[in-house]
Amino acid sequence: MSDNVKSDYDYSRQTYYDLIEKGRESLEDMIEVARQSEHPRAYEVLSGMIKNISDVNDKLMDLNKKQKDIDKKDEAPQIAGSTTTNNLFLTTADLQKMMVTQDDEKLVDVTPTE
C-alpha cells in the first residue's frame, strides 16, 4: 500500500472518529434541550442528529471495508500449488497407433482383420 493511501486512510478514519465523538456530545446536549423545551422541532432536530451519527458510523465501516479491499489488491495472488494438469483426449485408434513394440519399434497392429 502506498504511503498516500495509508495516510489518507488514517486521516479519514480519525476524522470519522472526531465527527462521531462530537456528534455524541452534541446529542447529549440536544437531548437536554428537547426535554426542557418539549418543542416538536427540538425532537425533530434530535432525530436528525441520531441519523447523522448513524450514517457516519456506517461510513467508518465502509472505509474499513475499502481498506481491506485495497490490501487484498496489493497482496500477491496466492498459488495453491505448482501442479499443472494437462488433459489429452484420444480415441482407441489413436492409442493403437501409439503402441510400439520394444524390439523393432514398429507399430503394433491390433485392428481386427476380416
How many strands in all? 0
Helix and strand succession?
A: HHH
Oligomer class: single chain
**Distance N terminus to C terminus?**
74 Å
The computed structural class is mainly alpha
- Give the uncertain stretches in residue-range form: none
Which percent band covers the strand fraction? under 5%
- Rg, nearest Å: 36 Å
Arithmetic mean of pLDDT: 83
Shape category: elongated
Query: Major sheet: size, sense and barrel closure?
Result: none
Helix proportion of residues, in percent? 55-70%
Question: What's the number of helices?
Answer: 3
Commentary on this structure:
By secondary structure, the protein is mainly alpha-helical. The chain contains 3 helices and no strands. The protein has helices at residues 3-37, 40-74, 92-98.
Helix and strand topology:
Layout (H helix, E strand, L loop, with lengths): L2 H35 L2 H35 L17 H7 L16
Keywords:
114 residues, mainly alpha
How do you describe this structure in short?
The protein is mostly helical and 114 residues long. 68% of the residues lie in helices and 0% in strands. The chain has three helices and no strands.
